[in-house]
TrEMBL record:
Classification via InterPro entries: SBP_5, SBP_5_dom
UniProt keyword Protease, yes or no: no
Family named by the database record: Belongs to the bacterial solute-binding protein 5 family.
SUPFAM superfamilies given in the database record: Periplasmic binding protein-like II
Keywords linked to the UniProt accession: Signal, Transport
One Pfam family in the UniProt entry: SBP_bac_5
Protein name: ABC-type transporter, periplasmic subunit
Length: 596
């Protein structure tokens, strides 16, 4: 089932449908431009101030497709958080969800049945009201694609609109005793990227499907749905109204209750990333910590934490990596993780000492201290230990290069997306200095996602893995480890870790082996009715991850520095509004941005 591997995981299938029946299905996905239906100020260039962001996003020639299930959907903040609005957002300091489109919500204490009342002030960029039916469409499509809360909710029966502005979500009976915190993470911070008007027919097709083949055909048609920048309905504060070879313009959405009062527009693609920062021409940016000699005109905003971790991820095509935890550990020991962290992470980031699967910023809250103390720490580079581990499997080093047990030069296919070019160079250099032959190459991220990741065409790669930037719960990390639609171990990567695993007894690396059933541990964690029970199951899975090392978690991921032109624009860098998972977007919505 395509739902098992998710949108990016099935990207290689996009465009593969050949028979007449499937072509007819794709014909139903044609769209007409809707930009003419947007009632915007066409004189914005003369009447509005212009802002130049550093991040690059220009959807000209459909470099980005505005369909969240399409392999070319990944435009970052400017496309997702700026173009599409949230049901609620989570404030990390206050530990509470703040209303956006949702006005209010109530959750039944016994059943977790949830009613969400929507604001009537929000509308799509075309002027059509945003209603509960739009959110039902979004939740159902995520569920049918294996990307949503289908484990906890009956997608067909458990999500519905009671009226135009009341959304109802009901968990399956067996999950009615979930922790409320965990339940809210499943639905509360939903980014509304699809409308019933443009995507509702896919829901009908899914519900009409009676076989797995029919369901797969609908999934394929949704993946192939190519929505251009001028065809999409925007729910968020910004609308693309121009895209050419030189630049693209985003103007405030005239239907957004907050953005409609702004009098500035964004021209993207003119001053890009580090080059733009160094030139001093940009007005704001969210960039890596590697930029040096930033002009004095830019203030330094607080460092956001994205709730994910940077990890070395192992593929399953190399039999030694797949079958031997010792080999995965050896590769990790050969990498200088402290230097990798210091040279590529935001200032003050500490490397992960445990690689336990739980985010290192929270691991001490959810894993028994004695077990943490007993965990091997793979982060400090230890090439002697790495050599011992490889030799224990039958590898030999000849003339400084590692040979497989069959006597062949061991070459690792190390393909990465270009978000992580500098990070992967450090890792590749470490491995080659240790004597491992590495075929290291970097691809544009959309290409890497659509081909390399979709086909699991790597022995080693790097990516952001595990974690979330909302109300923290260890279930979210472990669910990602094992069930993530792209890199989860129970999808295409099965073989590295099975559902039933044997590890040394918890807290004793030299003890007798014990067996854990991972799905059972996950389910028990999701319905734990005490902190003690939650910690017990989280400790078990953390130990499994540390001992089997399906991925080497290196450090918690920070979103980079905010660079803001503090000379020309008023921007309150001390505002608590920074402390949210939605970063700059949230600040603008709460406070605006004013010309000095």
């Amino acid at each position: 089932m395509l739902a098992v591997s998710g949108a990016a995981g099935v990207a290689a299938l996009a465009g593969c449908m050949n028979d007449n029946e499937d072509e007819e299905l794709l014909d139903e996905t044609d769209l007409d431009p809707v930009l003419d239906d947007v009632d915007y100020n066409e004189n914005y260039e003369e009447e509005f101030e212009v802002v130049y962001p550093a991040p690059e996003l220009n959807p000209v020639d459909d470099d980005y497709i505005f369909n969240p299930y399409h392999p070319r959907w990944n435009p970052g903040d400017l496309g997702q958080e700026f173009g599409f609005e949230y049901l609620t957002i989570y404030h990390t300091e206050r530990s509470e969800y703040l209303p956006r489109i949702a006005d209010d919500w109530s959750i039944d204490d016994d059943t977790l049945r949830t009613e969400v009342s929507l604001s009537e002030e929000y509308a799509w960029s075309t002027g059509e009201d945003i209603t509960a039916h739009d959110f039902v469409t979004a939740y159902k499509l995520d569920g049918y694609m294996g990307l949503g809360m289908q484990d906890f909710v009956d997608i067909e029966e458990g999500i519905y609109a009671e009226d135009d502005y009341t959304l109802v979500i009901e968990p399956r009976e067996e999950y009615s005793d979930m922790e409320e915190e965990l339940w809210m993470t499943e639905w509360a911070e939903t980014n509304l990227t699809v409308s019933e008007a443009q995507y509702g027919h896919f829901v009908e097709d899914f519900e009409d499907a009676t076989t797995e083949d029919e369901t797969q055909r609908v999934q394929e048609s949704l993946i192939n749905y190519e929505v251009s920048w001028d065809e999409v309905m925007y729910s968020g504060p910004w609308v693309f109204v121009e895209a050419n070879e030189q630049f693209a313009d985003q103007i405030p959405n005239p239907e957004h209750p907050i953005a409609q009062d702004w009098e500035f527009f964004q021209r993207t693609g003119m001053y890009v990333d580090e080059e733009g920062i160094q030139s001093g021409e940009v007005d704001w940016g969210d960039d890596t910590p590697e930029i040096q000699d930033v002009p004095d005109k830019y203030g330094k905003g607080p460092l956001p934490y994205d709730g994910q971790s940077f990890a070395i991820i192992f593929g399953n095509s190399d039999e030694y990596i797949r079958d031997h935890p010792e080999v995965r550990k050896a590769i990790t020991y050969a990498v200088d993780v402290p230097y990798l962290t210091e040279s590529t992470a935001t200032d003050g980031t500490e490397y992960d000492e445990y690689s336990a699967g739980i985010d290192s910023l929270y691991v001490e809250d959810y894993v028994d201290a004695d077990v943490l103390d007993a965990m091997p720490n793979y982060a400090p580079q230890d090439t002697d230990r790495a050599a011992e581990l490889l030799e224990s499997v039958g590898f030999e080093r000849s003339n400084g290069t590692w040979q497989t047990p069959e006597g062949d030069t061991w070459t690792l296919n190390f393909s990465v997306g270009n978000w992580f070019e500098s990070h992967s160079k450090v890792i590749s250099n470490n491995l080659q200095e240790f004597g491992i032959d590495v075929d290291h190459y970097v691809e544009e991220m959309p290409t890497w996602q659509a081909t390399t990741r979709a086909n699991l065409d790597f022995d080693v790669t790097v990516h952001l893995n595990y974690g979330q930037a909302r109300n923290y719960h260890p279930y979210s990390d472990f669910d990602g480890i094992f069930n993530d639609t792209n890199l989860g171990l129970f999808t295409e990567r099965t073989g590295i870790v099975e559902e039933d695993v044997e590890v040394p007894e918890v807290g004793n690396p030299d003890g007798d082996t014990v067996t854990f059933n991972i799905p059972e541990e996950l389910e028990a964690m999701s319905t734990a009715d005490s902190e003690e029970e939650l910690v017990s199951h989280a400790t078990n899975l953390a130990w499994v991850h540390n001992q089997l090392l399906p991925a080497a978690v290196c450090f918690p991921w920070g979103g980079g520095h905010y660079w803001v032109n503090t000379v020309d624009w008023n921007f309150d860098l001390e505002s608590d509004d920074w402390l949210t998972s939605n970063r700059l977007t949230h600040y603008l919505l709460e406070n605006g941005l004013e010309r000095v």
